[in-house]
Structures are given as C-alpha cells and as structure tokens.
Design a protein that fits this description.
The protein has twelve helices and twelve strands. With 308 residues, the chain is an alpha/beta fold. It is elongated and about 75 Å long.
C-alpha cells in the first residue's frame, strides 16, 4: 500500500488520532481535562470530537450544564477506542522489549483460583525454556475479565470453563481439572474424612458472591445434591481472605484441592470429601475469537496445554 492509498484509506474511515482523543475524553470526564492530559488546546479537542461525530453521523456525548456523558453510540465506540489505545501502547512496548532481548510484554487476567492453579505452572515452564520475558498478571472477576478482553487490556483470561459456551466473541481452552472438597480449619477436627452435602450445609460457610463461573459451579453442587444452599454465609470473592477466615474460625468453604495445596501440606487446613460431588472444576484460558495471539501469549497457552 502506497502513502497515497493509505491516506485515502484513512480518509474513507476514521482517523485513529481522533479515536485516541475520544478515549482520553472518556477517561478524563471532560473536554478541558482531556486537553490538559493531551497537552493541546480545549478548542482543538472539541473540534476533533465534533469532526468524529460528523464523520460517524451520530452524537457521542450528551452535553449538559453539569458535564458530559456518553450516548449509547459513544459507549459502543469506547470499547473500540480503548482497544486501539491498548494496541498502540503494546506496539511501542513490544518494540522496546525486542530491542532489549525481552519477550513480551503480555497482560494476563484471571479469577483468583484459576490464577493460583495455572500461572505458577506456566511461569515455571517458561523459565526453563525461555530467556527474559515480561508478563503482567491482573486478578478480577469473570465479568470484568471479559470486558478487559474486549478492550484489549489483557490478551488472555484464566477462568472457569465448561459452564456455558463462550459464544462467537471468545474462544476457550480447558487446561486442568481439579476435584472440589469441603475445606475446614483445625476447629473441625471432629469431622470425618467424608461428609454428605446435607450435613455440610448446616455449618457456617464462606462462599463467593453471585456471578462468575466458579460461583455457578458451587451452586450446581448443591442443586445436584438436592440440598438447599447454606443460610449462614459470609460472601467473599478473595481467595486469600476466604482461606484466612476458614483457618481462623469454624467456618468452612468449598474449593478445588489444588488452590489449598500449600495449606493442606502443613496441616493448617483439611480437605474433606463431599460424597455427592461427582464432577470437577474445569479451568482454562479465554481469548478473543478472531484475534491471533502474540508469540509469548501463544507460548504461554502451549506450555499449559503440554504442547511444548
């Protein structure tokens, strides 16, 4: 493509610089704040937004005396603008790292249990077979992770898989399975090594909040056993805090054995078999369906899948 044809191609579509300005207005919350962040004049930002709205034929912001807010069309565009901003940041970072002989960087997100189960295993394999590399790891809920994938803020999401199909937007790989157990502290030394769901439900619990694949899997355990969910429950999405509460109190929880392996090995927690539980937790990777992975992200998935 020649410079002339490239210019023609851009003029027929959208100016990437206008999308960057639009994204900064979204982040800053006002035209004036965005202008300060970008180091340009306020009229320049206003003109850029007006031109972008004119080319699209829609309004992107509701302009009121109290400030601005995104229209429905603006909300839709923001996801794409954020993805473009992330792509440009990644392009610069990849070149800078390549010049230093460093693979990456890549950004990976995950739910707490999936991160604990998969990331150490992948890093151990990469350390053995690869030189220097950079990976950033972010912990978030499954819903937030999906949105981060859409905005290209992360390249891979490590999540519970197999609950529902990823749809056309994402692709998934299931990489590990782990049995569920009732996890108790030293205050429950009297409990047997195997217990029914009905007896366990009468105990005091710590469980995740509503939403997310892991929460749905736990709910299905009670449904399949035809047992009502516990009434005495503390809701907590932090894996570290959940384990700390169980260690310090008489409360119990359900977790995959793998995520409490360290505590089980030193005896501060105990895993009890749940007799009616017949299926295991499935965890793996979610990524955008039609976006090729960068080399380091691809290698990350391959080492977890045992392909290298």
């Amino acid at each position: 493509m020649t410079i002339t044809s490239l210019s023609s191609h851009l003029s027929a579509g959208l100016d990437p610089r206008a999308l960057i300005v639009f994204e900064q207005v979204c982040i800053s919350g006002s035209i004036s704040s965005a202008a300060r962040e970008l180091g340009v004049s306020q009229p320049s930002v206003s003109q850029t937004i007006s031109s972008l709205e004119g080319r699209l034929g829609v309004g992107l912001f509701n302009r009121q005396s109290t400030g601005i807010s995104l229209t429905r069309e603006g909300e839709a565009l923001r996801t794409k603008a954020a993805a473009l901003s992330g792509l440009l940041r990644d392009a610069r970072a990849v070149v800078e790292h390549a010049a230093k002989g460093i693979a990456g960087p890549i950004q990976i997100g995950g739910t707490p249990g999936a991160l604990v189960s998969l990331v150490p295993r992948a890093i151990r394999a990469l350390d053995r077979m690869h030189g220097a590399f950079e990976i950033s790891v972010i912990e978030a809920s499954e819903q937030v992770l999906s949105e981060m994938l859409r905005r290209r803020e992360i390249e891979l999401a490590l999540v519970t898989t197999g609950i529902s199909g990823p749809g056309d937007e994402f692709r998934e790989w299931t990489l590990a399975q782990d049995p569920f157990s009732l996890i108790v502290g030293r205050g429950h030394e009297d409990l047997p090594n195997s217990i029914g769901m009905a007896a366990a439900s009468d105990l005091a619990w710590v469980l995740p909040r509503e939403g997310g694949g892991f929460r749905r899997q736990i709910s299905s355990l009670f449904i399949n056993a035809e047992v009502a969910e516990p009434r005495n429950v503390i809701r907590c999405d932090s894996l570290l805090t959940t384990k700390s509460i169980v260690r310090a109190t008489d409360r119990v929880t359900i977790l995959p054995r793998n995520v409490v392996e360290a505590e089980l090995s030193v005896g501060v927690l105990r895993a009890i078999e749940l007799r009616e539980v017949t299926f295991q937790r499935h965890i793996g990777i979610r990524a955008l369906a039609n976006v090729p992975l960068t080399p380091l992200a691809s290698l990350f998935t391959q080492v977890l899948g045992g392909e290298v």
